[in-house]
Amino acid sequence: MLKSFRILIIGVVLLMGCTDFLNEDMEGIYTSTTFYKTDEHAMLAITAAYQPMSFTSIKNPLWVFGDVASDDAIKGGVPGDQSEIEFIEQFSYTRDNGFLLSIWQRYYEGISRANDVIHRLGADVSPEVKESVVAQAKFLRAYYYFHLVNIFGEIPLKIKPAYTADELHVPTSTVDKVYERIVTDLIEASNILPVNTLQHGRVTQGAALGLLAKVHLFQEKHQLCLDVIDDIELLSLYSLVPVYNQSFRFDTQNNAESLFEIQHLSGQDPFVGNSLNQWFAPQAENGYFFNVPTEDFVNAFEKTVEGVSDPRLNYTLGREGTTWINGEPFNPSWSPTGFIQKKHLQPLSEISAGTKGNGDLNYVFMRYAEILLIKAEALNELNQGPLALVPLNEVRKRARESFLYDESLDGFGAVPTDLLPDITTTDQDKLREIIRNERRVELGFEFHRFYDLMRYGKSYAESKLVNTNFIYDEHRFFPIPQNEVDINNQIN
User: Fold this and answer.
1) How many CA atoms lie within 13 A of 232 on its CB side?
2) What is the pLDDT of residue 14?
3) CB 420 within 8 A of CB 358
4) Confidence at residue 20, expressed as pLDDT on a 0 to 100 scale
5) CA distance 107 to 214
């Protein structure tokens, strides 16, 4: 089972062949009894609690569950390579699938580290530092549990460090109970977290409120969702950037649209680079070309009568007849579907083929565009269609007006006729479908789609995953990994 977080500052040199042992205490070793004592310790511990959410290795396969398990993507890659991903794609997996275990262990490690920060800080940690890092830890714990409960459903709810062997074994809690803890953590965190932070990547009040709004939406608590969004809007911090893809470029990340993004930086020791840059890139660039878009995803984007596509399509992926991120024509043979997503890739001018897996592009977990779409959905579900049109059309307006701000677009300077017109229908059922599709194209390949399919319900999910073995009653949640079942005697 997961162990409490320990930090090794100085290695211990083992002297071989000596007849006498040293009696001095080891220096440079921190354990749970010697750590968590100072402000510096507290900051180190909370930084460590952020680490599991990063994409520094395949051990954080969130994209497998967010994209590949959905109708937006297939595994891609060389046939036979990482075949366990294909089992997830086709819903033919077993409990011993390595990717189930990877995300389980990774995110519970994050929870364990957050719990240590919340409960282990000593009396010598200053009140202001303790308040700050505990609030951050509560957000992080909520973030990890949000993903785990959406992937696995009923899971062990661990909110304290395990001090004894018996405390390692925790029975599963209901989905509602896990959400209850998530909501409590986010409310408590949002009451303490700063509105702004000087260090990119540190959690802010807006991040906590944004995730809280999303949690309320997932629980169909639509008025509570809108109340939280009111609080976000009162911050007057967030807005849509003029060009859609500015949230997915190194030179324009951490912008006004970002509520929370997970930071990466190349060329560092210890490693903090983004490995997705290699996992998703074409083989011609020393990539593995996994997580490739489906034709069904491409067809979700609107076109004008003259055939001009929603610009978000080409911002999101490469396809035949378009220019790739390096400036050369895109080659559809790079992918088994003829498409490769762009949102997590950097051009070779930024990250060379030789260091492809060491990118410095952040992962944007939540953007203001999603807040607007959450607002639109909540309003529509409350039979307030005319009000729902306002945030929905704000998202569409930004997309079409990329033609006014992006000189690289063919036709720059004027919005093509009939491109992404404002939605006018207030029929609840029709508007619901429009909002769902808008989420799909706006948030495509940001690892959200599978969660959406599941919360939309049985008939919707089964219709979208008809080409797989998916049966809602069997596959709504993935099974707890066999490894965890074997070692946790409280799980049946």
Assistant:
1) 32
2) 29
3) no
4) 36
5) 19
Find how far residue 99's CA is from the centre of its chain. 16
pLDDT less than 50: residues of the chain: 1-27
Q: What is the pLDDT of residues 372-391, one digit of tens each?
A: 999 999 999 999 999 999 99
Q: Is 440 exposed, middle or buried (0-12, 13-18, 19+ CB in 10 A)?
A: buried
Sequence-separated (6 or more) residues with CB below 8 Å from residue 356: 277, 278, 281, 285, 286, 287
pLDDT at 30: 61
Query: What is the average pLDDT value for the chain, to the nearest integer?
Result: 93
Inter-CA distances, 491 with 5, 196, 370, 480, Å: 24, 42, 36, 9
Predicted TM-score of the model (pTM): 0.93
**Pair 40, 150: CB distance under 8 Å:** no
Cis peptide bond prior to 161, omega within 30° of 0: no
31 CA to centre of own chain: 31
CA distances in angstroms from 192 to 189, 198, 216, listed in the order given: 5, 16, 20
What is the model's pLDDT at position 138? 98
